[in-house]
Amino acid sequence: MKQELITIICNKSFKYSDEPTFKLVSGKRSRFYVNCKPTTLSPRGMFLVGHLVFDTIKDLNVDGIGGLTFGADPVAIATAFASELEGNPINAFSIRKTQKDHGIIRWIEGDMKPGDRVVIVDDVATTGGSTIKAIERARLEKLDVAKAVILVDRQEGGIENIRRHVDVCAIVTRDELMMHIDKPENRQT
Questions:
Q1: Cα 58 from Cα 137, distance rounded (Å)
Q2: Are strands 64-68 and 91-95 parallel, antiparallel or unpaired?
């Protein structure tokens, strides 16, 4: 499953250049660009992501999985769906970028309650800032954050930054994507 996911990410979501031509959220320029949405929103990508993330967290005895909208949403939803298929249901939730200012004022959307044990997920980690923000907001809502799972680690310090807040792992790394692209049979001509 993982090798198939790497192939899909390389085909749909990953670009690189010899020069730092891609502008990141931080304003910094990079040689690597990762936009997981074409992968996580595709049927096969969603299937693979959901099962791989579920396999990573299935023994943690968690109630929910989610993260900062919108990057985390398809990953959390795919994982929740896979968890039901596997007979171990885990709820998906979404953390808002700005707090709701009407109705019930909260950061979280989904069927979660204080004390629930959760996993924070994100599609890509560069500095880890979005994931850390999601961890902090989940804790503000009194959720017990057990772990963070990153779909693609750009290997630019994000995992190390997140690890200061909670245990974390990545499903795929930038090095794995580059190794796939560097294989002669995968080179685009």
A1: 23
A2: parallel
Q: Which residues pair with 32 in a beta bridge?
A: 16
Average pLDDT over residues 151-178: 97
Please compute, for residue 65, the number of CA atoms within 13 A of its CA located in the half-sphere on the CB side.
Answer: 33
Q: pTM score, two decimals? A: 0.92
Q: What pLDDT, on a 0 to 100 scale, did the predictor assign at position 100?
A: 61
Please tell me the predicted confidence (pLDDT) of residue 188: 53
* For the chain, domain boundaries: 2-186
- Indicate the fold that domain 2-186 takes in CATH: Rossmann fold (3.40.50)
Residue 189 has what pLDDT? 43
- 151: closest CA among 173, 133, 129, 166? 173
Q: Which residue in 118, 114, 171 sits closest to 146, CA to CA?
A: 118
Query: Amino acid identity, residue 73?
Result: D
What does the block give as tokens for 53? Answer: 């993330």
